[in-house]
């Protein structure tokens, strides 16, 4: 059954998503958070509007553009369904591209009765193993530079985290990790070797993360961001109990240097 989320809970979910995938550098500007991570992933290299602030949106957009330009990055805004519509209008006037990659953040309530830690799932608390990192890099086809930044992002985690993996035929076949903020675990980096798909491996890694979050951190909720158009992934998470949609977000980009 879908949970009807209150506005305070949605805000905590948003915080969990930010803290579960930290940037390497952040700048706070009148209620907006500018995240920078050398261009690796838009989530860690975009402006997140946490509150409207008091200054004119156009003035702040221009300030954000200057900051990202100084770091050799394109200006990218991550606009949630809670963001004021006036910001989108400002971006339109400044020539930003149309919204891209609409993403939904799915949510579920957690309780000990709903979760169980499955056998044959390896859990590493606090930091991933080298084999976990190497597997994720291979499955996501990361280049050398991307792998290094990815490692530094995980090193920057400041909340409790666990890294789950499942082995098949002698090597890791599926990985994921979860990070807990204020009672909500955010699931990230879910990847399975194509040779071992459709065996329920991703379900096992995620289920183990949820059980860990409840048992070790007292988590009462879980969230996961997923591109709305990725129906197989949405179906996977809904099948694991992520039946509620907390909010949606999309990106608005201004042309500039490409991501890693």
UniProtKB/TrEMBL annotation:
Keywords: Transferase. One of its GO terms (molecular function) is acyltransferase activity, transferring groups other than amino-acyl groups. It comes from the Bacteria. Gene3D superfamilies: 3.40.630.30. Coiled coil: none annotated. The keyword Nuclease does not apply. The keyword Iron does not apply. Residues 121-260 form the N-acetyltransferase domain. This is Acetyltransferase (GNAT) family protein. It comes from Microvirga subterranea. The lineage of its organism: Bacteria, Pseudomonadati, Pseudomonadota, Alphaproteobacteria, Hyphomicrobiales.
């Amino acid at each position: 059954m879908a949970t009807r989320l209150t506005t305070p809970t949605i805000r905590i979910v948003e915080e969990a998503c930010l803290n579960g995938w930290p940037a390497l550098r952040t700048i706070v500007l009148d209620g907006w958070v500018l995240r920078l991570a050398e261009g690796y992933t838009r989530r860690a290299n975009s402006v997140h509007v946490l509150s409207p602030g008091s200054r004119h949106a156009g003035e702040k957009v221009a300030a954000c553009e200057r900051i990202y330009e100084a770091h050799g990055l394109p200006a990218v805004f991550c606009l949630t369904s809670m963001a004021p519509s006036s910001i989108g209008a400002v971006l339109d006037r400044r020539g930003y591209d149309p919204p891209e990659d609409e993403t939904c953040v799915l949510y579920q309530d957690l309780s000990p009765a709903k979760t169980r830690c499955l056998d044959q799932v390896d859990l590493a608390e606090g930091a991933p193993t080298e084999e976990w990192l190497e597997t994720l890099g291979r499955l996501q086809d990361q280049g050398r530079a991307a792998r290094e930044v990815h490692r530094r992002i995980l090193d920057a985690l400041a909340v409790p985290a666990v890294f789950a993996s499942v082995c098949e035929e002698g090597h890791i076949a599926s990985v994921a990790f979860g990070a807990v903020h204020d009672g909500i675990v955010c699931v990230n980096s879910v990847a399975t070797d194509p040779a071992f798909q459709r065996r329920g491996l991703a379900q096992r890694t995620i289920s183990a993360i949820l059980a860990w979050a409840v048992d070790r951190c007292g988590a009462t909720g879980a969230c996961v961001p997923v591109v709305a158009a990725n129906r197989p992934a949405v179906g996977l998470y809904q099948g694991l109990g992520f039946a509620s949609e907390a909010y949606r977000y999309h990106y608005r980009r201004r042309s500039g240097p490409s991501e890693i």
